[in-house]
Amino acid sequence: MRMLLCRCGCGETAHVKGVVTDAAMNTVTIAADGDDTLTFSMVEADRSGLRGLLIGDSLEVGYTGKYSSGMDAASVATVSKAAENSLMRMYREGIRTESADGNVVIVLFGPDSLEAELHDPRTCSVEVLQRRNLPSGGHVWNVEDDDTGNLRQTDGLWTISRRGRLIWSQPVSDADPTAGEWVETVFSGEVPAADGDGETTECTVRVLSRAHSGDGRFMLRVGAPNEVTGKNLILIGRRYTQRGAHGNPDAVVWQLVPDNADESLFFLFDDAAATLTLLTEGDESADVVLRH
Asked: Which residue, 208, 225, 228, is CA-closest to 216?
């Protein structure tokens, strides 16, 4: 990102993206790629693209001339919110573990795997564990407290236990290499806006699954990434494949079961047309079609 920093006295507007590390009413500090820490004044900035300002948000800042600390920003716009960044990491990088009663904990590893974060997507709580070496070889992640999680990999599956009792384990299908490589499929289209004023907004469904498996994980987003009004809806969870809809026993239906919401969503999958059609109760087609 260093190449985006204007080092000369030119009058052109340069843009830099980074993650907010500090913010006040009229100033913001971001950490950009390449370890640049940049501070800008927002007093005169165009903030029309800003969706609030929190530590951890990703921003794009425009400025004119040679950068200097505290200089005026020409514009400040939200790229993504901190919560959205966290959900995207859980979707893309997380190791999903499930309990017998359906609760989910998603594991994210820190740099060099020295720490492991246990994320509960429903409550947004996070438990951080430290890596420890086992006398027999290998590693376990925990803290010196019997009430915290104990994370380890056994027979190829990640498991989390407390006080010696297994609570969460990775689905076998997620760890089965015979099911093929992980493949992402993306569908998008327009859906009616929540305010019901006749406007539409963008809807995107991403699914990560092994090439030969009907299971997988999904991320659904309603609201364009650069939308500045309203609140984007983001769901992550499990995708299951079912058969039968509209009286057709061969129809393929995707069931999306969110980890951070209560109601499942059902989509009719048409491989030939490369579409997803939202289904309502009674397997009726809603007027929402997403295309690959």
From this structure: 208
